[in-house]
């Protein structure tokens, strides 16, 4: 049986890129094997959030994942910081991780290119991520395409550790399905909180309609035929529509007399329908936060049990016990 593991950062309001790029894969995979899902609160400290904001986001994210259908029985659902063993493992891993490997990380280089002045946490981010994965001997790590390189770093670090000290870690594989690789945002760039171009997973209806209407398109007039394959609205519609609905919209684009406003309205309705059952469940959870806290607490206990098995072995291999 494969062990599946993934983490999601509580770095803002979850968006549909997170859903299709990460959450949905886990929901599918949790049916196949044992899964570990955690809220990466330690990672989000690299952006120095306010303490009260971080606390709030962690709770929100827990509610949102459960609302999406994460099953707390078959999945071990926990907060990264509730298993402090991960930071200890990170230290051991740091000592087999070349600086050059981290300097080549795209996400680090991109942030620097965008003018962030990096802290050490941002630089060693992939080592903490490796610790997240290796601590639980995960086999399969579902993530979006942007995390591919971080997984390669994890594999390199694991191989290096195993060669240096002896077999301690399972070498994990990424799970990055092609058809959901990168979800575009309102402006056509990759949807990301850091680009401010996101569509919330559970936003209120009115502001969300406004957001959908603001999706960037070209300036073709209502009557003109349009190209579905280069249109951002159509790309997003693919996520929600049935094959028949998709073909119908494609034909309308090509025929003309179908404005972007119409397409956006259809997209908005498809989005609302798609998430309606999850919205309902979310409301119920928000009224029952004790239940949510209890799930995370139980998840942390289960996770720590597993973490200790790996850590005991690693401590021995490196020679500190
Ligand atoms: P953001 O870029 O908005 O800060 P995160 O870095 O918190 O998003 O990503 C959380 C998870 O969602 C990761 O697994 C990431 O790969 C995935 N993800 C984020 N944005 C997208 C996207 N636009 N398309 C596909 N997957 C995405
Ligand atoms: N870095 C991931 C992201 O930004 C979140 C994450 C942290 C993660 N640790 C992980 C994902 C371990 C998978 C496995 O999306």
What descriptors fit this protein?
321 residues; two-stranded parallel ribbon; 3-stranded parallel beta sheet; binds adenosine-5'-diphosphate; mainly alpha; 56% helix; binds tryptophan
Question: Can you put this structure into words, describing what you see?
Answer:
The longest helix is centred in the C-terminal third of the chain and has 30 residues, at 289-318. Helix 1 (16-29) links the parallel strand 1 and strand 2. The chain is globular. The two termini are 31 Å apart. It contains 13 helices and 5 strands. The protein has a 3-stranded parallel β-sheet. It has a two-stranded parallel sheet with strand order 4-5. It is mostly helical and 321 residues long. Helices cover 56% and strands 7% of the residues. Helix 4 (85-94) crosses helix 7 (120-134). The protein has helices at residues 16-29, 41-44, 51-68, 85-94, 99-103, 106-113, 120-134, 148-165, 205-213, 232-240, 243-255, 260-286, 289-318, and strands spanning 3-8, 34-39, 75-79, 140-142, 173-175. The structure holds adenosine-5'-diphosphate and tryptophan. Adenosine-5'-diphosphate is lined by residues 8-9, 11, 17-18, 21-22, 143-144, 146-147, 182-183, 190-194. The site of tryptophan has 13 residues, from strand 1 and helix 7.
